[in-house]
Write a structure and sequence with these properties.
By secondary structure, the protein is α/β, with parallel strands linked by helices. The protein has nine helices and eight strands.
């Protein structure tokens, strides 16, 4: 683990050994932490860097209200790590994809390209999910373990460890993250994100459906669309081979 100090706090990140390829900084989604990207690290062709957003994993927290204030804090986390490692590409999943879009739109960092995985230009949690965000994490985990929410295959080997990650991060962070997603909407600014973008999504994702990624690909100035077969929201874990193939092809074309 390494840390970078910024804005009065420390943000933790992890990095592969250096390679000849680009530096790709991976940003996790709601209620997760850096190791949700474990199947994208230690690979040939690029140097993977993963980050814990404020209050997740090993990173210090901030006292922010859910919504734009929290989003700004997360953008600052990612920008600080990106500058520290000289990131070429920034990849974000779900909430992390919203953070990446905001980072570029705010001019906090200027990557050569972005990867937007299982995300959208507008995110919302819906009444069903919002009603489960009480004081206990188990009801929301039970909902997310239902078919086609986090995993199409609810018995996938990564499903249990993903639950454990969310338990460790805790209900307060999950509530803040999902409530921040609920305020995110940059549909009227997509034309400002001019860098190449890969919009990649599980073909059976019910949280951020393929239509969300199709909208991104259709409205970003320089974007391509890819689906990961046989997966739901956690496509980078459920079918990491296909996800990584899509990532590799995108990086090779830059």
């Amino acid at each position: 683990m390494a840390t970078v100090t910024h804005d009065g706090r420390e943000t933790a990140y992890w990095s592969d050994e250096s390679t000849d390829g680009p530096v790709v900084l991976f940003v996790h989604g709601s209620g997760q932490r850096h190791d949700v990207w474990r199947d994208q690290t230690g690979r040939d062709g690029y140097t993977a860097v993963t980050v814990d957003l404020s209050g997740h994993g090993e990173s210090e927290d901030v006292d922010t209200e859910a919504g734009p204030e929290t989003m700004s804090a997360y953008v600052a986390d990612v920008a600080a790590v990106a500058r520290e490692v000289d990131a070429d590409v920034i990849a974000g999943h779900s909430l992390g994809g919203a953070v990446v879009q905001t980072l570029v739109l705010d001019g906090a960092y200027d990557p050569e390209a972005v990867v937007l995985a299982g995300t959208g230009a507008k995110l919302g949690i819906g009444e069903d999910v919002g009603a489960l965000l009480g004081d206990d994490v188990e009801p929301i985990l039970q909902f997310m373990r239902s078919a086609n929410v986090l995993f199409e295959d609810t018995d996938h080997p990564a499903a249990g460890p993903t639950d454990d990650l969310m338990r460790e991060v805790g209900i307060e962070m999950l509530r803040r993250d999902l409530s921040t997603c609920d305020t995110f909407d940059v549909r009227d600014r997509l034309d400002e994100i001019s860098v190449p973008a890969l919009c990649i999504v599980g073909d059976n994702d019910s949280l951020t459906p393929p239509t969300f990624s199709e909208y991104l690909a259709d409205n970003l100035p320089d974007a391509e669309y890819a689906e990961v077969p046989g997966t739901s929201h956690m496509a980078m874990l459920e079918n990491s081979a296909a996800f990584n193939d899509g990532l590799d092809e995108f990086l090779a074309d830059l």
